[in-house]
Amino acid sequence: MRYLRGRLAGVSVRASFGAGAWVGAAIGIAIGAVLGALISWFAGTVLAWQRDLAFTLGVARTLLPLGDQVAALRWLSNTWYLVIPITAAVVAVFVGIVGGFIGALLAAAYNRSPRHASVVVELPDEEGATAAGILPDMSTRLPTPDAVVFDLDGTLVDTVAARIAAWQAVFAEEGIETTAPELAPLIGIDGRRLAREVAAAHGRDLTDADAERIDQRAGQLFDERNHDPRALPGAAGILARLDVAGVTWAIATSSREEQVHASVAALGLDEPPRVVNGSRVAHAKPAPDLLLLAARELHVDPGATWYVGDSTWDMQAARAAGMSAVGVLAGAAVGADALEAAGATLIIETLDDLVL
Q1: What pLDDT sits at residue 119?
Q2: Which one of 3, 261, 271, 347 is most buried, by most CB atoms within 10 A?
Q3: Number of other residues whose CB lies within 10 A of the CB of residue 329
Q4: Full-prediction pTM beyond 0.70?
């Protein structure tokens, strides 16, 4: 079995609003039906009992001629089987609408509250399930951040496969045969370091110039393969929620400036986002330089910032920068165990699960 640990806050506000509306409406209709039936039965009974009394007649005379008043009372008392359900239905609808609105507001407010009980959901094993299977305990909610910084490839945009293919191609040009499983754990690291580590594993030492050349060539081959990238689940949603909540955010990626355009375009944003790329620092991830630069440009304390990424290098860089490290699995080349071992504070399946 697989276990997903989380909080009730993981349910979206929209879902809570809808559930609260249905529950509130159902309770309201039930109460309204009973209340309406009692009111209409009581009113019909009282009018039937008192239609001949002087008080009733005296009041009615101010509104209707005597003949019309008597006829109206006689009709009301003789058609109670219609009046009662109609009145009950009207009251039920009104109370149901009010109850649904109140229930929806309460549910949405509770969903945003930090006082949720932690939950553990047991899921059956299924094909394609995350190999790690067990996510770290997420029962402790992260403090609300002043800012959120995102990795790009594999976190916001599904490009890891294209990255791996590009690196395989460039190493093939260098006469080094590599495999996807060999390269996958290295995706997200500084490209020059990746080139040196892979070459060293195959018995070759690269000069700084060779590492730079291979890194640049890998970027060109990536661009050739990255024609139509797609945003990962929840990417557009979390960025919109941050904007609504007034939480500033940015993208910090080890990729060079010329390699990020297609991936950023896949997000479909109305305005260009703030992007801090690997070309602007001497040491890219797992060094903290990139993240610290992003924090400076956002004018926020790194300790009050989340860094969201998909690789072990992202988690290491976040911890080195003093940020809360959030691992997301949807586009990752590694599993939850690797992210946890690298220092992830929180691990989520998709960006839809990221709750402020």
Answers
A1: 35
A2: 347
A3: 19
A4: no
